[in-house]
Specification:
mainly alpha; 18 helices; binds aspartic acid
């Protein structure tokens, strides 16, 4: 019997995952079947993420250095850099404006009483994260001994070292062609391993979604329904309208074409809630299905997975306005501008792992004098919202790679 394509298997895995998760949720946490099922899906889901993380660091290292080295002409390299950064900042800015406009219009949180959440807030100790300190920490974390960074899985530092290595290989030209060829071959080997890991994706995704759906706190979700609706609605608007429109305007490619090529990565991002863990699959989809040149994909996507986060930026800004409403504070225009800027910095600084945005959000709240403890209110629903924002984060990276390719190489 011929199996359906991997794409279809992944979609089926996702659908079964949600259905079985709902069933376990109904059975209740005490039920033996649900307990056994959750244990098994916990094992399989974690194993899948472990496999992705196993290839992540060598992949980032090789793909960025080889990507840069292959963008050999200096002028082109400069253009790729600039276009990529402009794209990242602009798409995040649009996402934040969307999130803030919807929050100002619908005012989620204004009907709720902060007293309802007092208990959760008291039990939550927020770490101080002033902007200046965050910035210093971020800068300090950029340059680390590459061996330490590689062994500790520090993606940002690995990205930075790989960038420098790539530039050095370009400068050195023929002199370093052995190292270049070695890295190129290593990249091919790792992509081969990614191909094998992908075969397990339908099971991994199913297991992750079973667990996610089964343990949802429905009561909290309905209390915060309006906020959830604003965040989900604007994130979907960004993913279904804004990003496809940008893609169409710059490259002429249709949203359907994009969805067909990108869906393995998008579904994986949804299930794992981690742009970093999804990166191996993002790269594979961009190169194999969306025909992004490996040197462009190898540069834009790993960088994007670490700093370009449209969904996170939108969420951070919307959540700050929600908390202001909840507390009954009216933010001035200047304070709204501060939220805009800090939300962007916080999203850039958030690593591509589950709930990372919640940690850096402390900074956004503090920048306008809101209590960081209020994050405790959002924690119970964060894993659920993280699914969608991570999907849009990854989508933004892939659209970025296509736009950058169009604007830099085909002129
Ligand atoms: N989970 C997100 C990502 O990996 C980051 C976040 O917003 O928490 O892209």
């Amino acid at each position: 019997m011929k199996l359906p394509s991997l794409n279809i298997q992944i979609l089926l895995g996702a659908i079964f995952g949600v259905a079985i998760g709902l069933y376990f949720h109904q059975l209740g946490a005490e039920h033996r079947v649900a307990q056994g099922g959750l244990y098994a899906s916990g094992l399989v889901g974690t194993l899948f993420i472990d496999l992705l993380k196993m290839v992540l660091i060598p992949l980032v290292f090789c793909s960025i250095s080889v990507g840069i080295a292959n963008l050999s002409q200096h002028q082109q390299m400069h253009r790729v850099w600039v276009t990529t950064l402009i794209f990242f900042v602009s798409s995040m800015a649009i996402a934040i404006v969307l999130g803030m406009t919807a929050s100002l219009y619908f005012k989620p949180g204004s009907g709720l009483q902060i007293a309802m959440f007092e208990h959760a807030m008291q039990n939550f100790e927020a770490k101080q994260l002033p902007l200046s300190e965050f910035f210093a920490q971020f800068l300090h974390g950029l340059f680390v001994n590459p061996f330490t960074a590689l062994s500790q899985g520090n993606v940002l530092a690995v990205v930075m070292f790989a960038l420098i290595l790539g530039i050095t290989l370009v400068m050195g030209g023929e002199r370093f062609h052995h190292i270049r060829a070695l890295l190129q071959e290593a990249l091919e080997v790792i992509m081969q391993i990614v191909g094998w890991v992908m075969r397990l994706a339908p099971f991994g995704i199913m297991a992750l979604l079973i667990k996610l759906v089964a343990v949802q706190d429905i009561a909290m979700l309905s209390t915060l329904a309006k906020f959830v609706a604003v965040v989900v609605g604007t994130t979907l608007l960004h993913g279904i309208v804004v990003l496809p429109l940008i893609l169409y305007l710059f490259t002429g490619k249709s949203p359907l074409w994009f969805w067909r090529g990108a869906r393995e990565a998008l579904v994986t991002a949804f299930a794992t809630s981690s742009s970093a863990a999804t990166l191996p699959i993002t790269l594979r989809c961009a190169i194999q299905h969306l025909h992004v040149k490996p040197e462009i994909a190898g540069f834009v996507l790993p960088l994007g997975a670490t700093i370009n986060m449209d969904g996170t930026a939108l969420y951070e800004a919307a959540a700050a306005l929600f908390i202001a409403n909840l507390i009954g504070v009216d933010l001035s225009l200047a304070q709204q501008l501060i939220v805009f800027l800090t939300a962007m910095i916080a999203a850039m600084g958030a690593p591509g792992i589950p709930s990372a945005g919640m940690v850096t959000m402390v900074m956004v709240l503090q920048s306008v004098g809101l209590p960081a403890e209020a994050i405790a209110i959002l924690l119970p629903i964060d894993r659920l919202l993280d699914t969608l924002r991570t999907t849009v984060n990854v989508q933004g990276d892939m659209v970025g790679s296509l736009v950058v390719q169009k604007l830099t190489l085909q002129r």
